[in-house]
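Researcher: Dear colleague, please comment on this protein.
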Amino acid sequence: MPLRTMHLDPEMTVGQLQKTHSISSVGQLLPYGNIKHTGLPEGIEELEQTPVEFNAGKLDYADEQKIYTTQPMCFDEQGRLVGAPDSERTECFISGYLKRKIASTPNIGARIPRPSSTMYRISESLGKGLGMFATKDIPAGELILAERPLMIVPITATTTRDGDIPKHLTLHQMQQVLLQDTEVVYKVLIDRLEPDRKKAFYELANSHLHNGSGPILGRIRTNGFGFNEMRDLAPGMCGGYSIVCDELSRLNHSCSPNTFHRWDMPSFTVQLRAARHIKKDEEITTTYIDLTTIAANRQKQLAPYQIVCNCTSCANHSVSDPRRLACINWEKQNAGYVFGHFDPESKPALGPLMAAYKTYVAEGLEATSGFGQVLEMLMGSCAKHGDVPNTKLFAKKFGVWKLSQNGSAGNSKELERLLMALAKWMSIMKTQQKLKLR
């Protein structure tokens, strides 16, 4: 995910901007593309950042204080530092709030899950640079990779500069100050990396070469993932974080991705699972954007990555767009849907549900929550109609979907058993009803 980009008049001054926006929000107003006049404005000195080695066992920071820290670290029941769980560690520039949240996670530093075998290779992808490809057939729901990040940093540009930024500077100049300051702040973080992980970071792609982003920030903007679990949620705070991995950064975008990635706090890893069956030699893809919108909107969202998508859905948008709009309407109609809430009184029609299922599959949207809703509703509806084979079919599909989304099928097996019992009972009742009518 890129650091957020917004559009304002670049010639607006800091003084004018303060009338409608807080200066802290300017860290989200980052330019992309080819920008003229990059670098620090005349009269603004380069930020000096003194490396500070914070005590790894210290947790009593202010919520909003940003600190350099190596994670994950393990603590005992008395809150005393035990140490790092293994040699794969992540360098972080995070808030005191988030450090405490990480430290208080049950089983933090859990063993990194490993797939049964290596399922991918990193190699050239035509027109995209490096990509990830399957070396064998990969079933839906299968764990492909769990990777501990190289680094975690705020999703907004940051500075430790004392005092206000001069009010005569334009928005464009202020953006350049923040870009340059962020580069200095994150250079300290990069220098904390082990040599092999530092090398891996600098080998990542950088699609922000001409907008004032330095080589560090440019790579972070190009390759970072964002997850709701890694946010500052203390009162007065709402900032997200950019999570940069090594091999997972090689995943290219598709508007019909064949994987789903999630954050697992206990193992401190980003986990990648197959959202549908992936064939040997097929490229393994993810999404950088919101998928439930039409092709023209998706292309706009991809602009900061310097990407023009030519996937099947974008190339055939006259066919794809109506199907995407149908998925959007489905999710609007079911906006209040609660997973796991089985209503024995409702009996949704199978026809519309099957139509929705086929539309999601045709668009390759198996990684979306809407697809999970369709599967759960289908297995319930099939059970209520006494359709035993399809109840079992969609229950298994829902279990695989849940596994890819959550890393666990949860209670889907128990739900499958209950629905199978219901389906068999309904089937018997139907048979008895037919016999009575003879």
